[in-house]
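Bug #77: duplicate submission created two jobs. Keeping one. Sequence:
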Amino acid sequence: MLYLGHFSFVHFENDDKDASVSEHGDFTCLAEADDLDTALDKFADLIDQLRDQTDAFAGVREVFLEDCTEVAVMPEAGLIAHLESQEGEPAPAVTMSLPVTASDDCQAYGFGGLGEEEEGETDDAEPFMRFT
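Kept job's structure:
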């Protein structure tokens, strides 16, 4: 079965947990496993690998499992695994697709959006879909 784990984390400005949060984020892990416990173990290993091989979790002390979705059979039409909506303008953010995957079995494709622009350039990304 496939398992999708959705996680969140907070990074405090300093070691004082009462200090203001300087950043926060979320991420999703995907693992194939025979059962939920094995999937959770794989998620923990993946998160440790991300922490060891990148600076994505520098200063982060705790990661929270928000939910885990089990997919026994992939629906023919696909599925929307997670939806998040936020108020206001998008805040500055760092995003990474497949941050530590060293396998040729996975490929991330970028299609524009809120990315890094060179000075003086604007983001002219085309919407994937438009609703009328």
